[in-house]
Protein: Phosphate transport ATP-binding protein PstB
Amino acid sequence: MPKVRPALDAPERREGAQAAIFSLKDVQVAYGGVPAVENVTFELVKNEITAFIGPSGCGKSTLLRCLNRMNDLIPSASVSGQVLYHDQDLYAPDIDPVQVRKRIGMVFQKPNPFPKSIYENIAFGPRVLGMKGDMDEIVESALRKGALWDEVKDRLKTNAFGMSGGQQQRLCIARTMAVEPDVILMDEPCSALDPISTGAIEELMLELKRNYSIVIVTHNMQQAARVSDRTAFYNVDKLEEGKRVGKLVEFAPTEKIFTAPDDKRTEEYVTGKFG
Structure:
C-alpha cells in the first residue's frame, strides 16, 4: 500500500478564517482521453460553503470527484494539473486514496444508506478504519452532528430503509461525519428531496460549516444563493465534431455572482436566460 504522509491524516491548520484548504491549478479531467472539464484554477477556503453551479454536462460533479480522488474508481478517467489539499499534492504517488476519502467525505445525490440498522450504518466506517473509542459515543456524536439523534435514538436497531428520504440523507451525512473528515463534498444532496427535507439539509449545512469545509454541486440557484459563501460557475464550450468540454467561467463570493457578475454568461445563467 502506498505510504501516507502524516500531514494528510492530520492536516496542519493555518491560522485565519481565509486559509485555503484546496488550491487547484490548470486542472483537467478526461475520460478515454477526451476532456470533460479543463483549465480550472481557484482556491477553496476553510470553513466556508462553496457552490458549483452550471448547466448539465459542464463538469461540476466530475471536478467535485477530483477533490477526493473518486475519479480514480473510473478506469477511463485521467486527471492532470495540480490539486493541493493543505499544500499537499493529492495525486502524488505516495498518497493513499483511501486515506484521502477518509479526510474528504462524499454525500451523493440519492440517499444511499446501507441495508443495515441505523446504528450499524454509522458504526461501519469507524470499525473498518479501526477507530478507537466507545462505539456508542461515536454513533451518538455522529447522529447529533447530522441533526438526527432526537428522531432516531429510540430506534437505532431498526433498518435504515424505514426512514424517510430526508432522514436517510441526513443519515448519510452523519455516516460521513463518523469517520471525522476535514471536508464534506455534496453532489446535489437535495435533488431527490421534498422542500421541507431540503430546508433541513440546508440548515444542517450552515451548522456544519462552523467545523467543516463544504463543497456542494447544485442545480438549484436559490439553494446556492441561500447557503454558499462562494460560487463557481461552469459552462460548456462546444468543440468540433460535436464534442463538448466544461470550463470554469467565474469564481467569486456568492453575492457578487448573483448580483454583479463579471461575465455575461454568468449573468444569463443565474437570471434563467439559459441552462
Summary: Residues 1-7, 9-17 have pLDDT under 50 and may be disordered. The radius of gyration is 19 Å. The chain is about 35% helix and 25% strand.
